[in-house]
Design brief:
Layout lengths: L1 H7 L3 H4 L7 E2 L9 H12 L9 H11 L5 H15 E3 L11 E3 L5 H5 L9 H7 L9 H12 L6 H12 L14 E2 L2 H15 L6 H36 L12 E2 L1 E2 L10 H4 L8 H23 L12 H5 L3 H12 L13 H17 L7 H14 L7 E4 L3 E6 L1 H14 L5 H9 L3 E2 L2 H13 L3 E4 L5 E4 L3
Parallel strand pairs: 1-4, 5-9, 6-8
Antiparallel strand pairs: 2-3, 7-8, 10-11
Helix pairs in contact: 3-7, 3-11, 4-9, 8-10, 10-11, 10-18, 11-13, 11-17, 13-15, 13-16, 13-17, 15-16
Length: about 475
């Protein structure tokens, strides 16, 4: 049985990767808490080289460099600090105590303390700061860096720990501008840049609250990008399988969200959008994106290793179809080399070969036990971590329902605030359009519930003298 299993599937983990360096999918994310993801982004954005390895080591630095005169003072201050400015994962592995993660309440923290379980999330920031034609938004990046560098502690207690962090921060020689990373779905990068620019205009929150809201902004757009990438990859591979000469342009597709307390009955689209009853849905797209990305990664590496150069670092499947015939043949051979020799089909076209690999990758993992599917299911767990924050939530799972895309009241309020900062027309209909431009589709019933919730929060203005116009307004 073991020999049959070994001979019938591609040697996946040792032979290739879904990472496409410099474009489309620049790193392979792993599930971890939002705080660690955002810490890693800030470390990258600020060009920092943290010297402190862990929360435990930072406590030692606090004891050495802080203003405390007694051990009791150190212990009391740390207990307060730890309960307020650190968090944990859901549970520890195999009965171990859950890891503790630092909340990046001030830019000095990620500059000092190395984030746990790093996955180079800074490259995802760079990707969403890059337009579809490969231009990095230098002006917005500089303004974000400037806002971070001018950030003050929110209170005297924070200042004590910020000063310890600054005392243990290594000086760096300037901040190099990142190399552009072309996104697969450029509409997401446009929306991200517009929201970040809007959030830079917010002056009402305390510095630490502003930074934590920025964390939730990043988490939403990273989650949306992953979902939109997965959905668009499926659509592109399907379209080209029917007509290999077609050209597909990735764009934001409507994905149904529900409000947090809506009943997820079977007749509601959002209840089946993420995981459909027949096993399809966004969850399947994320699962299958591994194989599709692997095919695109092989194509990119093959082209980069050739003498052909058109300035791109990677290719969508539509772009790969336009490569010279001899180079497409080399790409097919590279893809087919991942199959056992007796199963290779070097004569097929590049679209068929890419689809064959997608199916082979899926079958390879589906034959394994759940505990051995970790690499391919990592994307699903990343969506959960990005979507399931402590305050603002974009994802929910329920017994008997399963996972669904949702907006709780804190998330809805935050999106309304971003809308007010980003747009000129405050009509409620324009808010719905704003959400759809970010891949968040609310049906008429959800729109009505969202309106009621915003009104309860004091964020709706009904103007009877304007024909009953409804506007979203700030608190």
């Amino acid at each position: 049985m073991k020999m049959e299993y070994k001979d019938s599937v591609p040697p996946l983990e040792t032979s290739s990767s879904r990472v496409i360096k410099g474009s489309l999918f620049p790193t392979s994310p792993a599930p971890t808490v939002r705080e660690t993801i955002f810490s890693e982004i800030l470390t990258s954005v600020l060009g920092a080289e943290p010297t402190v390895d862990s929360v435990k080591e930072f406590r030692e630095k606090v004891a050495e460099d802080g203003p405390f005169e007694t051990q009791e003072g150190i212990d009391t201050a740390w207990q307060i600090f730890s309960s307020t400015y650190t968090t944990t994962g859901e549970r520890g592995a195999r009965g171990k105590k859950a890891k503790r993660y630092m909340i990046p309440f001030h830019p000095s923290i990620p500059k000092c303390i190395k984030p746990e379980e790093t996955r180079n999330w800074g490259k995802w920031y760079t990707m969403l700061m890059t337009s579809g034609d490969g231009e990095f938004n230098s002006d917005l990046h500089k303004r974000f860096v400037s806002r971070l560098e001018q950030q003050n502690p929110s209170n005297i207690f924070e200042q004590v720990f910020v000063e310890v962090a600054e005392e243990n921060t290594r000086d760096t020689e300037g901040i190099d501008e990142p190399e552009p990373i072309r996104p697969y779905v450029s509409d997401v990068s446009k929306a991200f840049q517009k929201d970040l620019e809007a959030w830079l205009r917010d002056e009402h929150d305390s510095p630490s609250n502003w930074l934590q809201s920025a964390r939730d902004l990043f988490s939403l757009h990273f989650m949306v990008y992953y979902i939109q990438l997965s959905v668009n990859l499926r659509l592109e591979f399907q379209q080209l399988s029917e007509n290999p000469d077609d050209s597909y342009s990735p764009e934001i597709k409507d994905t149904h969200y529900g409000l947090w307390n809506e009943s997820a009955s079977q007749d509601r689209k959002f209840s089946q959008e993420y995981r459909q009853r027949d096993g399809d849905g966004i969850e399947r797209d994320i699962y299958d994106s591994w194989g599709r990305l692997m095919a695109l990664s092989i194509i990119a590496k093959t082209v980069q290793g050739s003498k052909y150069d058109d300035g791109r670092k990677a290719y969508t499947l539509s772009e790969a179809v336009q490569l010279p015939d001899s180079l497409k043949r080399s790409c097919v051979e590279a893809i087919e080399s991942h199959f056992p020799e007796r199963e290779r089909q070097p004569e097929v076209n590049i679209v068929t070969s890419a689809r064959r690999l997608t199916v082979a990758v899926r079958k390879s993992y589906e034959q394994r036990s759940a505990s051995n599917q970790t690499p391919i299911t990592a994307g699903l767990n990343v969506i959960r971590q990005l979507g399931d924050g402590k305050e603002r939530k974009y994802w929910r799972t329920q017994t008997g329902v399963g996972p669904t895309l949702r907006l709780n009241q804190a998330a809805l309020r935050f999106l309304a605030r971003l809308f007010i900062l980003a747009e000129d027309d405050m009509h409620y209909d324009m808010f719905i359009q704003y959400l759809e431009n970010r891949g968040i589709y609310l049906d008429s019933e959800s729109q009505s519930i969202a309106l009621d919730e915003l009104e309860e929060m004091g964020m709706i203005d009904r103007q009877s003298d304007s024909g009953g116009a409804v506007y979203v307004r700030t608190i």
